[in-house]
Design a protein that fits this description.
This protein is of the alpha/beta class and 371 residues long. It has twelve helices and twelve strands.
Length: 371
């Protein structure tokens, strides 16, 4: 089977970790008889330097014509002027909106071999397996007006939080659909005791829950969820929430397995096609760790989140479940053998480089294919 992938390495450590993810895709393609045509394009700060805008038309056209998009990271101190009207992060918001990607999936799973890496006690983290679904194209990141201005008492700034019932309904339905293949429990997170937007969110979520009665459902306020993720994370299965709350909570949840360098993400839309009798969903895949400019180019970055993002790409957009599972199993075996990048290594423990970790995963993929 032949697939076309758009590769957008971006800024900071993005190119380093994306290189390892692409190499793993080439390795798994060899073992599963997949033909992958992978083409790179610029995005974010690098695109600003090259063309003056963070999301060039050529990059967007490449993404639109692909079966899936693999992205590294965008941003860095070079482009951090708060007064600038052009910023790398605009590329992420723009490409998500242009491609109609409304559901951001962020799996958070504890790895037994890394229980002592988390800052939480092992008995709290052991067995954690959460899927956070963040609404991606609405909310305060997209609402208008969003501006700085001069007011009677000096400088002011305003952002607008807007949601429509259709935006809420479609992402909550995704949560129920995915929960049905897991532990059949959905937790909707809002701030309905304060925000009108959250009261609409809760009202629509209840309507969706009534039509999916085979899946358990509960509401949790966002401040309480911030506490519960640290106190009793094993109690949750699928969590669905609005854009900004999801952005914050998933960074917190990243600390459960011990490092943001372990967490992949998938941003999915409604564009589907049939591949061998399975439904494939167009999506954009990226690690959640950001560009980490302080360690860029030093071989210190953990590529596992990018590699696991590639596994999600195989699963959701190419409908290659066996290939996706092979990548995930290879990552697990590498960690079980005690290989650690700098973010995972304990004091006095030897850390391996970005490139060495990627090579170790590829070696496990090759070894697994021979079993």
């Amino acid at each position: 089977m032949h697939f076309k992938l758009a590769i957008l390495p971006g800024d900071g450590i993005g190119p380093e970790v994306t290189t390892e993810a692409v190499a793993c895709l080439r390795t798994v393609a060899k073992h599963f008889d997949l033909s992958l045509d992978m083409e790179e394009a610029i995005i974010g700060g690098r695109a600003i330097d090259d063309s003056g805008i963070p999301l060039p038309d050529a990059t967007l056209r490449l993404a639109e014509g692909a079966d899936a998009v693999l992205l590294g990271a965008v941003g860095g101190p070079k482009w951090d002027d708060p007064k600038s009207t052009v910023r790398p992060e605009q590329a992420l918001l723009g490409i998500r909106q242009a491609l109609g990607l409304f559901a951001n999936l962020r799996p958070v799973k504890a790895v037994d071999a890394l229980l002592d890496t988390s800052t939480l006690k092992p008995d709290v983290v052991r067995g954690v397996d959460i899927l956070v679904i963040r609404e991606l194209t609405g909310g305060i990141y997209f609402g208008k007006p969003s501006e700085r201005r001069q007011g009677p008492a000096g400088r002011e700034a305003i952002d607008t939080l807007v949601y429509s019932e259709d935006e809420v309904r479609r992402v909550v339905q995704v949560a129920f659909d995915l929960a049905r293949g897991r532990k059949k429990k959905v937790t909707s997170v809002d701030k309905a005791n304060v925000l009108s937007s959250s009261r609409l969110w809760r009202e629509v979520a209840h309507e969706v829950a009534a039509k999916n009665a085979d899946v358990a459902y509960e509401d949790v306020l966002v401040d309480a969820m911030a506490m519960h993720l640290i106190r009793r994370p094993r109690d949750f299965d699928v969590i669905v929430t609005e854009n900004m709350f999801g952005d914050i909570l998933t960074d917190e949840a990243a600390m459960l397995p011990g490092s943001m360098g372990l967490l992949p993400s998938a941003s999915l839309g409604s564009r589907r096609r049939d591949i061998g009798g399975s439904s494939a969903i167009f999506g954009l895949y990226e690690p959640i760790h950001g560009s980490a400019p302080d360690i860029a180019g030093r071989g210190l970055a953990n590529p596992l989140a990018a590699i696991l993002s590639a596994a999600l790409l195989l699963r959701f957009s190419l409908a290659q479940e066996s290939a996706a599972a092979a990548v995930e199993a290879a990552v697990d075996r590498v960690l079980e053998k005690g290989l650690r990048t700098a973010d995972l290594a304990k004091t006095g423990e030897k850390a391996i480089s970005t490139q060495e970790m990627g090579a170790a995963v590829r070696a496990e993929l090759d070894a697994g294919a021979g079993r």
